[in-house]
Amino acid sequence: MPGCLLPQRVVTTLIGFFALVWAYTHRVSISHVITELVVPINRTDSNTEQEDVCPPEEADGGREVGTLINNLGIYEWSEQMQGYVLGSFYIGYLITHMPGGIVADKYGAKWVLAICMGVSTLCTIFCPLAIEYGEQWGLMCVRIMMGAAQGLLFPSLTTLLSAWVPTKERGKLGTLCYSGVTAGTVVSNLGSGLMLHAFHWSVTLYVFAIVTAIWFIIFIFLCSSEPSSHLCIKPKEMAYLDEEIPKKSGNKVPIPWKEIMLSKEMFAVIVSQIGHDWGYFVMISCLPKYMANVLQFSVRSNGIVTALPFIAMFLSTLLFGHVADWIIRSGKLTITVERKLFTIIGAFFPGLFMVLASYAGCNKTLVVTLFTISMFVMGPYYSGQKLTPLDMAPSYSGTIMAITNGLGSLAGMLSPPIVGLLTPNATMNEWRMVFWLGFAILVISAIVFAIWGTAEVQPYDPRFAEKKAG
């Protein structure tokens, strides 16, 4: 088997990376598809000032934005209704986080992750049918089910990484795995833009579903929940992982809910997760709409220009993962200080550059550049707060990730409808308020994490006593 030629902790990390890539194509592609489903805003009938909306870009052959063959918008959904459609995913996403984390911690991550990806793939396949027969309500129902499936994603991946990745490699391998979020957004934006330009919108969803099915088959054969149950791990790597990763207790100890939930450190992780998710979800869910409705890029150009910020974030995430490992190994900073510093950088500067982009007017090159810088400086977040569930409580990492990421999904559920409420006419001034709000939320959440966040193993984790004794 080709997977046996590489260290299995690397193979497992790459499998997790591609799980996130394909899961995010399911999640994000609808943000592009919806711009082709709905009837375009009729600017000639509005009272919008000219400088508040940019002149439209012409597509190939002189065709205007939104008039490409087979993709004429027919659904009259308001901006707020579109927000409800985009946010509906996170209703299901919130519900299944907790059970997903508990089951993954107790019984292993492999089959929890398999259920997540399998059901998400089926929901993606059925989206066109749901739209045809149920319009916005049918789409919302399928998106809620998809969200419920993907609610298992981060808890199971966190449990998988805690079993496979030693502490001193988490900055590099953990960040590589989680960078699949950004890579998936890039693939979704680029792929959606190109496919929507050339094919019927349903093709976009079918292609992403088929590729995920191929990943699913590979995953079943190459992945296991723990090193000890893997079919082709080499003895040398097994010995290394046995030494570096403490074994979980054979006894199924109760989860210390009271200690976890009343911890100020846990509060800091939750607040910072919600803050980050607000900024990030606004970008992945709503940036395509800003580019289409305000800057009026063509559908193909929209795919390209919305991919560029996330390409920058992907590269930044990998870069800062290596930087974080070097800082910790060299003793320049403690793990806690490194996590706090990278979280602050990954919150303040992205918010700042989002706001600046909203003041760049119709200078499309400058707007795209500022959004790209914004997402580049968000990359350190994945070597900061995102790794703290693995640091704080390795024995309950899936459960803690379920709590934090689940509550973070409130931002994903609320932000699209609120953006729709703030932007009824989809003008530049209305969107400027959206970016100022995101800046404020990002900064406040990072300050909370800087005050109370930690990367130290917590007393309620069984490994705390082992570490103290060691």
TrEMBL record:
Q: Which Pfam families match?
A: MFS_1 (PF07690)
| Primary localization class, coarse | membrane
Q: How does it sit in the membrane?
A: Multi-pass membrane protein
Q: Is Amino-acid biosynthesis one of the keywords UniProt gives this record?
A: no
GO annotation terms (biological process):
monoatomic anion transport
Record domain Major facilitator superfamily (MFS) profile: where: 11-458
For this UniProt entry, which segments traverse the membrane? 6-24, 111-131, 137-164, 176-199, 205-224, 304-328, 340-360, 366-384, 396-414, 434-455
Look up the record and report any one GO term of the cellular component aspect.
membrane
Q: Which keywords does the record carry?
A: Membrane, Symport, Transmembrane, Transmembrane helix, Transport
> Does the keyword field hold Lipid metabolism?
no
Q: Which InterPro entries match?
A: MFS, MFS_dom, MFS_Na/Anion_cotransporter, MFS_trans_sf
- Provide the leader sequence positions: none
- Subcellular location(s) per record: Membrane
Task: Supply the name of the protein.
Answer: GH11095
What's the source species for this entry? Drosophila grimshawi (Hawaiian fruit fly)
